[in-house]
Amino acid sequence: MTTIAVPVWLAVLGGLLAAWALYERVMMPSLRWVIRSRANKALDEFGSRLRISIRPFQQTRRQALIDLLTYDARVQEAVAEHARSSGMPRELVTAQAHRYAREIVPAFNAYLYFRLGYWAARRVAESLYRVRIGYVDERRLEGIPSEATVVFVMNHRSNMDYVLATYLAADHAALSYAVGEWARIWPLQQLIRAMGAYFVRRNSRDDLYRRVLERYVAMATENGVTQALYPEGRLTRDGRIGEARLGVLDYMLRGFRTDGDRDLVFVPLAINYDRTLEDRSLLLALDPDAKRPGRAGAVWNTLAFAANQASLAFRSKWKRFGYAGVNFGAPISMREYCASRRLELARLAKEERFAHVGALARHLMDAVGALVPVLPVPLVAAVLCDAPGRRFSEIELKAAVEALAERAERSGARICVPRTDLDEAVDAGLETLALRRLVVREDGLYRAAPAESALLRYYASSIAHLL
After folding, report:
1. Are residues 404 and 363 in the same domain?
2. Shared-domain flag, residues 430 and 402
3. Pairing between β-strand 176-179 and β-strand 227-229 as defined by DSSP bridges
4. What is 406-450 written as a DSSP string?
5. Strand order in the sheet with 392-393
6. 331 and 351 fall within a common domain
7. Which helix H or strand E contains 393, and what residues bound it?
8. Distance between CA 323 and CA 307 in Å, rounded?
9. pLDDT tens digits, one per residue of 243-297
10. What whole-number distance in Å separates Cα of residue 227 and Cα of residue 196?
């Protein structure tokens, strides 16, 4: 028997290569088969329940979509143009477009979306808030044609918006979001892609990237994928609804034709919270002279917040963060909108089309703004901000809040708390503000904490346009 001596490094390398081959050739195919079979079962189970079905485009393998996007005629036109202007070989520019496509295209998995995503979204939302749907135009929502492309247009107050909308829209459709680069970290980006979201580089000046993104959004829209759109493009900093950015909206509308196979229907959806988790960070962004915590500081602040909440829960002192309210508005059909204005957006020059897209964006944001839920904390904050130095008895404060609620209702606002529960809701709002030391109670009287006036205005501003 002959013994052959092998260096340790070679034995380790051989072992690693064998393990990799086992993983690549045996474990991964088996794992893919299990995930695919469960995803197909989830499609069969949930697909029949949804009002808006999951489209074949969403079920197409991700690699096929990446190739379809990369070699799309308009993307290839952009590739040729970029190659000419930069002097780069076309093959290198095509490879760059392919990288952009891989970055953008999601990998929707029905099993993860409905089994894991919906379950997690529901648990998180209901654990943190008293979730209320104040208004839904059921009759008109049910009247949306089954083949139409539906886009939920939303205001953007918190990163919790993704969670809340996924949970509350689960009976209607599987939503596809545009998500910023903040989420491109392992393993979060893999989960987000599996939930059907696509990644967007905010404010990118790369024409080739923008063309690839434009074509993906257009392809998804043309193929009926239900999407959720935040026209503001970022979280509101001061609590008010911001102006719409037109980029993604224009991508959706650029190829829309009134005589096409599908209508494009926008559904206004408005969200509000008694407590926005990022409120102090958002206000900090408004002050150019404020010291920024940096990435490490932000992580530390997040961990400290989580530890504090866990400590409160351990001592049985933790309470939910008040109400989270959602209102669904009447659908806006682009066929009807364009017909009433004699528009054919696909035939207009860029400047003229952009002007009409801007008008539509304002119309959509006005519809969303009119639906913003009126909640206890914004009501109490509005009363206190109107009289910053005044001290209120509990009865006076509740009377002022009730008068403000009646005023909001007369203007057409949607109160997310039933009239019979308003007194209890005001108590809950006061408790939320007192726990955060935004309201001071002295000798049985309430007043706004002077050092927290900016934060109170942030919450009052969420409903200021309704008053």
Report:
1. no
2. yes
3. parallel
4. HHHHHTT--BSS-GGGHHHHHHHHHHHHHHTTSEEEETTEEEE-G
5. 392-393, 445-448, 439-442
6. yes
7. strand 392-393
8. 22
9. 999 889 999 998 899 988 899 999 999 999 999 998 988 888 887 776 766 666 6
10. 9
Dump pLDDT digits (tens) for 148-207.
999 999 999 998 998 898 888 877 778 888 887 766 676 677 778 888 888 888 878 889
Site of tokens 């939503």: 175
CA gap 69, 171 in Å, rounded: 30
Which candidate, 370, 369, 368, 363, places its Cα nearest to that of 343? 363
β-bridge pairing 264-273 and 332-333: antiparallel
Do residues 364 and 428 share a domain?
no
Q: What is the CA radius of gyration of the chain?
A: 26
CA distance 231 to 217: 14
Residue with tokens 């709002």: 429
DSSP-derived secondary structure letter, 269: E
Q: Is residue 412 part of a domain?
A: yes
Q: How many helices (H) and strands (E) does the chain have?
A: 21, 11
Structure tokens at 17: 């290569």
CA angle 429, 365, 462 (to 5 degrees): 20
Range of the domain at 400: 376-464
CATH number of residue 414's parent domain? 1.10.10
Indicate if 317 and 244 belong to the same structural domain: yes
Phi, psi of 16 (to 5 degrees): -65, -40
CA distance 96 to 179: 21
And the tokens for 193?
């892609």
Q: If DSSP codes are grouped into helix, strand and coil, which group holds residue 142? A: helix
Round to the nearest angstrom and report the end-to-end CA distance of the chain: 93
Q: Which residues of 246-271 are buried (b: 16+ CB within 10 A; e: fewer)?
A: bbbbbbbbbbbebeeebbbbbbbbbb
SS3 at position 94: helix
Q: How far apart are CA 98 and CA 80, in angstroms?
A: 14
Helices (H), 203-286: 207-222, 247-253, 279-284
